[in-house]
Amino acid sequence: MPTTTIAGTIALVLLSLGPASLPAQDKVNPRAAVLQEFKERVDQYMKLHNDLEKDSPPLKKTDDPAKIKASQDALAAKLRAARAQAKPGEIFTPAVQTEFRKLLRPEMTGPDAADTKKAIKDDQPAKIALKVNGIYPTDQPLPTVPPQILLSLPQLPEDLEYRIIGNHLILRDVHANIIVDFMPRVTA
Q1: What is the largest CA-CA distance in the chain?
Q2: Angle between the 94-109 and 113-122 helix axes, to the nearest 10 degrees?
Q3: What is the chain's pLDDT, residue by residue, as a tens digit (188 residues)?
């Protein structure tokens, strides 16, 4: 009997027996589960951010840096109060950190690693104390994250961004200008 006929016959028999006879597929891809957990934590943060932002008076379109900063500071204060107990690793959990390091390993150790590390170091700010809910210093540059790094990591909502400070990956709230969470040793 030809191979295709045997395979077709087996498929027909399995289908006729119904789903109960098929092997259970309850195993979840561990990488997908960790990345889903990260997404859920980001979504929870963004829900809080959006709820607090709705409760604030809307910032009218302005080029006045003082008004923009006042709006940022007000949102940051609300987020800090709502997340007063937040600690490092609440979004970048240990499992997420492990997975992110795996995702970034090719960029940090592969053939283009020297170029990637040089790009990261090019516009680094002076030493910044990383603290969850801490304000990102407005007198320091916001280092560009190389595109190959961004392509390796999960996409973020518009109001959040990744930045690399020294060898730490931070999650920054753009509107509030606060450090939401950070992950050590990402470029090592």
Answers
A1: 81
A2: 110
A3: 454 455 555 544 445 555 554 455 567 788 899 999 999 999 999 999 999 998 776 666 777 888 778 888 999 999 999 999 999 999 999 999 999 999 999 988 888 888 888 888 887 887 888 999 999 998 898 988 899 999 999 999 999 999 999 889 999 999 999 999 999 988 76
Structural domain boundaries enclosing 27: 23-183
Location of structure tokens 């607090």: 52
* 16 within a domain of the structure (yes/no): no
The reported pTM is: 0.80
Q: Rounded to whole angstroms, how far apart are CA atoms 105 and 85? A: 32
**Strands (DSSP E) along 120-175, which ranges?**
160-165, 168-173
